[in-house]
Amino acid sequence: MIDDVEQPSPIYEEKPLLSASSAPRRWQTRTLLLTGVFFLVAVVSACAFLIVDAINAQDSPTNASTKNNFALNKDNDYDREDYDETGTESGVADDGSKTLTQGVGISDKLNVIGHEDLTILPAGVGYDPVNTDVENEQELFDINGKENEDELSFSDETSSSFDTDPEQEPNSNLNYTVPNEFNRDPGFFIEPLHCNEHLGSAPCTNHLSSMSVHSDEPFEIECGHCVVVDIDDGSTLDFPNGLLISGKLYFPPTANIVIRTTAVFVAGLLKIDIPAENNQVKFVLYGEEELEYIDSLPGSPCEREGGCPVGAKPVAVVGGQLDIQAYREECPSWEKLEEISYFHVGTPAECPDNIIADADFESSENTKRVWHHWNNTIKVVSPGYQSNTAIEARDRSTWADGMYQNLDMSCLKERQLWKLAAKVKMYDQETGEPISCHNTNLRDCPMLRIHTMRNNPDQSRAHTFHEFYAEKFDWQMGEWNDLSVTFDILPEMLSDTALFRVMIVGGPAGVVLVVDDAELKLIGAINKLHVSAEAAACWKDTTELVITSHTRDWKDRQHVVVDSVDESRKVITLTDGIRKPITAGDSKEYGVEVASLSRPVIFEAESDADDKFIGGHLIVLRTQQKQHIEGVEIRNFGQQGRLGRYSLHFHFCGDSSSSVVRKNVVRHSNQRGFVIHGTNNVTVEENVAFDVFGHCYFLEDRIEEDNTFTRNLGIDIKNMPIDKLLSEKSHRTETDDLASTFWISNPNNFFYGNIAAGGESHGYWFETGPSSGPLSEANLGAFVDNEVHSSSKQAFTVYFPGWLPKEVAMFENLKVYRNQAIGVFLHVTRNLYFSGGLIADNGRVAILNSRGDDVVFNGTVIVGNSGFTDPPSFCTANPHVDIVGMQLDGTKLNENDLIGQVTGTTLMDVEFRNWSATATGCGEGTTVMKMHARQQFIPTFYNPQYFYNVLIDDDAEILNTCYVQDTVGIDNAAIEVVSDDHAAFSPSASPGFLVGPAYSSFLNGCSPINECLDWCPNACLRIVRVLTNSAESDDIEMVVRDGAGDNVVTIHRVIRENDSMNVNFDAYYTVALPAGTFEISFQDIGTGAAIFPDYAIPIFEAAPECSNHLVEDDLVIILPDSAREMCDELVVNGDFASNIDGWQQQYNTIQWNPTIGVGGSGGLQVTNTNNPLYDFATYWLDKSCMRAGDRFEFHAEYKQAATGETTTNRLCQGEGVSICPKAELTSMTLNRETGAYDSTSHGLGSTRLPYDAVGFNVIAGVWTVSDEQAAADKLRFLIHGMGDTTLDNVSIKRLM
């Protein structure tokens, strides 16, 4: 027992627990000050419940009240169907057992836990997030007591995989609303124990070694008491019934201990100081029982029946504190690797010093015997380099053709470092002229290729190629040049069934390669890391390190162990050799990281017997106490497929401004890494995550704000198996099968200097929920100096359903490099500003903007090939594959921008380096920029783009617009080059426009860049989008004439695919015009006759930066004569004889039926009507026919379908004209300040009575055109109040 100390004594005494093996275990943990009447009431209640439980014990157990109890309970394995709809349990455990647990002044009761960690609540009790890890059930469907009608519903119609289509909308965490703020009621948080108020300053005189462990009860540090761990010999203590810290448990630096236990509950204080050198504090969690926490404090969130389930193997902070400061302040958690070195080893005695045979090519016969050709011709030629002969490879049809020989694999060992040296020169096969080699262009220089060919079990051959590029040298044309290539032997190069071939290849097709004096020698093995002085002082022998991937492949990280440290030289020697990484000495931009995986305090868990992916979990549960977690190594935590069971998890802790999570390691995590859920203001700093399943640094529910993530590192982040996703349990679609190192559901957090250093899917993923939800417009806290490399999919992505910040979101110095797929993917977003940064060595596209408005890149460097990374594997496999620096989108996300507020992509002082096909090693179609061709819902270019001083450093193609023209027909690009100081677009470095050739007729001095794009220096254009009726015919073209009539251009309309019948979408005619006066008219394509598409509203897009541009007064819409015969009947297709052309639908479905009309004729059928007042068939009237004072007669016939007992037929018949279908005319005028339409409705006529409930009814009336209607931009005719209806014989005739 605990020694007496001068501390407040507990008011209760320990009670032994029942020892039945099948009984759930129960712990009393709270000191309850019971006085006066309250104490008497409690005693009476206890007696009453004892009687009730005694009666119930004779029958099946039931869920009684669980107030005032804290329990650690065994899972009795009830199935969900054991519970009735009221939430009470109706089944029994398999063995029928039940247990009573006693506490002083507290009700005795039978407690039953539900299936696994699921708690079924009594009727009337809402879902509690602490039990289900989702929001309150009422809030799931309801905000402030009423249905949330503003939420959009998104369906998962496409695959969640980004492998083939990164723009398909993935399964996203939608389908729920954001809960209200944390402090919803006084009992939302678990309160600290009052008996510990003075514990921090009290002496800690109790010793752990003097305390006894009872085999049948949890080991408890009592409230108000402090126990110091005085065990320093590394011995192991086992607490089979769990460790309960109600008071204070202190581990001084002298502590050296392993604690094995089934659970750790911290209701008081767990304090661990930095262990002394060679000491460690280790907790090992084991067991498979599902446990729960039941609080004794009235009003506590864990007070009620079922408590707070915490699952198996928990480290649970329940109102208490972790104060773990176990890593020295000066010790780095990780850093950039400064340099490497290797130890020299001699060639094995049985191997020659130079393992290439006949390396000087002096023996012609021997050369022919050992050297072979690969899709080319080789021969011995003379003269060689300072010798008689050399070897020549000609007739090379591809870059990969060359010479090779098979090598003796017995001389090669894994992780050895070898060096190839040779004398080489190149010349053109046809002309004989020498060929140059540029250091920045990989494939026009000689290189080394290792080809490993293995025999598969089915006798087929498997081929593996590894390419190693020449170290930089000054190429002298026509002279012998030194080729030097250093490479290491990879495990996949070696196989018992392999042939190992060395090939020397290089240069484009048609280049002759001549080689002499080749040698391949063993240098040694890399086993020394040069690190900072701080790392050398902190990382000791046996420390485990991980070196992040130096390639595009996330799996190329290297897990190593320190053998020794030379602190004075700052050199770490490893136990084994490693592959050569990219160091800061090689490149400050592209160097890898090295991180320590070892910490002196360890939380580790044993896996379940039948599931190795069920480990432990650490949860800070509804606790607002300050937490300090520093220097902890968390191994094998996380429980796949179990909701809320993550490696390190703040769960609904509200404002946690003082909490710090620093310099920890989460490794081999089975489910997620660092999870912040329902918690604000936590500092997460300099942590390392390694080998994690699912999203790693994770903001769970989009309500988390003002948390700060600084210098955190994520490595080896793996996709969660689909069958272990939490979707069914969280009531939303989870996306951990596309794991992101940083999953950012609420942008209002702060990110500084983090690195996503390799993962199976994404690096940073912003996914804010429904595009109409409260967080879709959330502003960014900060995003500064963050990096991502070695990700397999979209490295940095803003993805469906769209983040649309109200204020500009600034991304400062973002580095995205060495990733396999898209570097930066921006989809359905706006207001993003990238300041500085580096985007380099990515896959097919460096930056893809798809439906992103108002996106700016300022001072960003975009690199096709840095020289530090091999070309993408898909390029080496297929030289015809193209890659792109940036894809631009000429259409808008915000199609409803009707006042020119929105722009597309702006480039300011952006530098494109090494984007030619030669430089990248990819196809000839490789280009700096390309117009995007996917999701062009309205295929026309109308989103202004701006280029300021773009720098392109080689002869790469500048902008490819042919692809989008050929695939979706967009041929009207108009991009402003505001300034061109680097002469990227014109030798004269003048401003101007890049335009589609159709616009050249308005301009002078244009010259073609390619067949689809012209450069027009000093041009100044304004994009104008003219909105017209999408239900009109495709045979109408727009004619644009300048004031003099000298220049004419005809424009064809575009509409949304399959959307001509949707009243909410317009057709577009788009043109880019210079300053001047212009007239716009419309004509029939076939006849040239004047015609009008019902309305024509010019939308002037954002103005160009050039000063002399078109303004609204320069453009005039020419209307046909309103007295023309066509205007005598405004409804062209009102009898529906053969179709319903010209008619549109709103929130319903309209279709033509050949026999449903009056007398069995054709008619328009309205179905799927939800609200008869707002769902209707509509028709746009010809605006050019409107003259104030003209009178029109309206007539229509309709018949309503019976849709059950409450049909509109019966309502109209019984109550009269007020609810009968009516005809209405809405005049709509665009407000040029707000961008919305000002609308006025006018009744045209109502149903004539008496109403015929079986046959057709008539709506009729006479209408006089008002001044407002004549001046309106468009006029919409509709009939509403109909429900599902047949419409026929609609007419609006002018009265003469």
Shape descriptor: flat
Distance between the termini: 109 Å
Helix count equals: 11
Radius of gyration using CA atoms only: 38 Å
**Averaged pLDDT:** 81
Structural class: mainly beta
Strand content: 35-45%
| Biggest beta-sheet profile | 34 strands, mixed
The residue ranges in which pLDDT falls below 50 over 5 or more consecutive positions are: 1-164, 169-184, 1203-1210
Helix content: under 10%
What does this structure look like?
- The termini are far apart.
- Residues 1-164, 169-184 and 1203-1210 have low confidence and may be disordered.
- The protein is mostly beta strands.
- The longest helix has 21 residues, at 36-56.
- Strand 22 (377-381) and strand 23 form a beta hairpin.
- It is flat and about 110 Å long.
- The chain is built from 11 helices and 88 strands.
Describe this protein with a few key phrases.
1296 residues, 34-stranded mixed β-sheet, 11 helices
Q: In short, what is this structure?
A:
The chain has 1296 residues and is mostly beta strands.
